[in-house]
Each structure stands twice: as structure tokens, then as C-alpha cells.
Amino acid sequence: MPGTCGSDVKWYASLSGLVIHSSGLALDDEGLSLKEELLRLAQRMPKAELHLHIEGTLEPEMAFKLAKRNGVRLHYPDVDSLRAAYAFNNLQEFLDVYYTGMSVLLKEEDFYDLTWAYLQRVHQDNVVHVEIFFDSQGHLERGIPLNVQIGGIRRALKDGKRQLGISSKLILSFLRHLSEEHAFETLDLAEPFLDQLDGFGLDSSEMGHPPGKFARVFARCKDLGFRITAHAGEEGPADYVSQALDLLQVDRIDHGNHSLDDAALVQRLTTEGKTLTVCPLSNLKLCVVKAMDQHPLLSMLKRGLKATVNSDDPAYFGGYVNDNYRALIEHLPVTREDLYQLAQNSFDGAWVSEEEKAKHLHDLNRVFG
Ligand code: ADE
Ligand code: ZN
User: Fold this and answer.
1) How far is the CA of 359 from the centre of ligand 1 (A)?
2) Strands 199-203 and 167-175
């Protein structure tokens, strides 16, 4: 069955260059100008992106370019048919396409080109800091060594800082559908590169693979002095979020939507000031929410959760970080204060020094006047 969630979301550009929802959302002049003002503000404000899988930035055009360069055969005749395959009903359907897409990434320059294209793209969105996941095991299994993966990504990140002023962190994410032993083996392989990593994460198929399965390997990462984050509560229950806190000692939660099912957990996340890296368009495309006007982001903020806005896998889910802000503004009663809070949360949850956070906040305050 073709993807059922969010397939009706279409965007078109208005004369002013702003994007208005095709549903013809009933807005009076005042409402429209308020939305326009919010869209402009969301575009202009400096922000950090904390939840981004670099393999999820593989646009169909780039996939065909790399396939040609590397002599890889794709199972789709052209860009349009590949894009048409991006219709998912759940996380697993997406992951099947996502892991197949990785087959075009073979050389250091492929990882460089992918990362550089992402940085150039989000520079237009006024993203000033990024924290990027890479799925090392998905590449190791195809015979691509870590020096190729990390070398290409890191070289682009360095150019991103030098040429675009974007600072960055790199997070090796363990695949939770594989064993903890596999994660330990990967950590051993990563030993010569630990100075090029900033943290460890946990992603891939959530159901049936609770955080507790990886308690020992994350304890080792913590012992090595690394920060930890884990996907939890995307499709999985609130208990997986609790496990990530209790058993993995995470510094952040990726997604965390199902935390809202447990009031005590919400209270705990709020008290502990844990950042949630929320991904609205991803949630829509993977049917975590049925429609954008049902997205819980604003209710997360109201309940005091430190929610942030991120794109997850922008090439697959229909947009980069500002497209996510735009979708929220068009479908939910987002306020100016919400936008400020979201940008502030993105810097607050970033793994950067207090001095860097203060500088970003200063720049944010200048935009908000
Ligand atoms: N890998 C890439 N995107 C993911 C997501 N949204 N959830 C789990 N694993 C992922
Ligand atoms: Zn993710």
C-alpha cells in the first residue's frame, strides 16, 4: 500500500516567496500576515539541528550521480520513480528504502559530497550548528571502512565551519536491529577515530529492540567520556524512553513522542531538563502522527518539555529543517514565543560550551529584537 500519512501535504510558493499550504487554510488578512511574519521569523532565526542522519540527506539526484560515478545499479529507472518510492506507512518501510539507498556511498568523496550538500542546503535555512548521526554499521557491512566514512564526513564538516560558519558534532549511531555484540565490535573498530567522534546514538527499528538491549555498550561509551543520545518513543512505548534514561543514561532523547503517554515521565523529563529532538515531517511521513494539525509539538512545549525541531532524513520526508518549521506554522497555532523557545531549546540541547550557547542566544535575541 502506498504511504498513507501526509500524502495530501502539498506546498506552493505565494507571490511573496512564502510557502502557503495548498489546503487553502481559511485565514483572514490578519491571520495570513501573522503567519507570513512567523514564516519569515522561522526562516531568519539562527538555529541548531540536533537530529539529522547524514544518509537521510541522500536526494534522488545525488543517488543517481553517485551511482553513475561508482558504477552502482539502482533499482529505479530515474529520479522521479525513485522519489515515488518514498511513500511509507511506518518506520520499517522507510528503513528498507533508506538502507538500500546507502549502496551508492562507497568512497571518501561520496561521504564528503553528501555532507557538503547538506551543509550548503541548511546554510540557506540559517542553521548555525549541526549534530549529525552516521550509521557506521550499515557501511561496514558493505565493506566500507570507518576511515572512509569518517574521513569524508569530517572533511566536509571542517569546510562547513571554514566556508559557511556552521559548527558541528559527529555522532556514531548503533543500529538497534543488530546485536549488542555487533555494537561492541563497532566500538572496537572506532577506537582509532574516537578523537573524531562527539557522541554515540541508537537508531533503526525500534519495536522489539528496547534501549536495555544496549545497556553495557553505552556504559562503555559513557566510561570513555562520550555523550549519549537514543531514539526512543518514536514508535516504541513510553517505557523505552524511561529505559533510555535509566539504563543508557542518555543526555538527550531523539523523538520521544510517546513520552506524552506517561504523565510521570513527562514530569521527569521536564524536571531533568532533557532535550527532545522532535521531527515533525518525519512523524507525518512515518505515520507517527496522522496529520500535522495533530502533531504534539506545541503540547510538548506547554508541558515544559525542551522540544526542538529537526528534519531527521530530509531527502525522504519532504523537507529540511525550515520546511519542518513551516509545516508547524501552517497547521498549528504557533506563536512568536514558541519559535523563540524552539530555537533557544536547539542551542540549549546542543553539545557545545556555555560560551558558544551564549553567543548563539545573543544572535537569536538580535533577530527577535
Ligand atoms: N534511521 C534513520 N532515520 C531513522 C528514524 N527516524 N528512526 C529510527 N532510525 C532511523
Ligand atoms: Zn532519526
Assistant:
1) 31
2) parallel
Nearest CA to ligand 1 atom 10: 204
Give the residue extent of every domain in the chain: 38-368
SS3 state of residue 149: helix
Taking the C-alpha atoms of residue 138 and residue 126, their distance in angstroms, rounded to an integer, is 30
What is the pTM assigned to this prediction? 0.94
Task: Give the chain's length.
Answer: 369
* Cβ 52 vs Cβ 311: under 8 Å: yes
Look at residue 14 and tell me whether its pLDDT is greater than 50. Answer: no
Annotated catalytic residue 109: no
CA of 101 relative to ligand 1 center, distance in Å? 14
Residue-level pLDDT at 30: 65
Report how far ligand 1's centroid is from the alpha carbon of 35 (Å): 30
Mutating to test ligand 1, I would choose from 50, 52, 94 the residue with most ligand atoms within 8 A of its C-beta, which is 94
Q: What is the pLDDT of residues 99-130, one digit of tens each?
A: 999 999 999 999 999 999 999 999 999 999 99
Q: pLDDT (tens digit, 9 = 90+) per residue, 275-331?
A: 999 999 999 999 999 999 999 999 999 999 999 999 999 999 999 999 999 999 999
Query: Which tens digits make up the pLDDT trace of 298-309?
Result: 999 999 999 999
Q: Which of 3.20.20.140, 3.90.25.10, 1.10.3720.10, 3.60.21.10 is the CATH number of 38-368?
A: 3.20.20.140
DSSP-derived secondary structure for 21-74: ETT-----HHHHHHHHHHHHHHHHS-EEEEEEEGGGG--HHHHHHHHHHHTPPP
Give the active site residue among 59, 234, 235, 330.
234
Q: Please, is 87 exposed, middle or buried when counting C-beta atoms within 10 Å of its C-beta (0-12, 13-18, 19+)?
A: middle
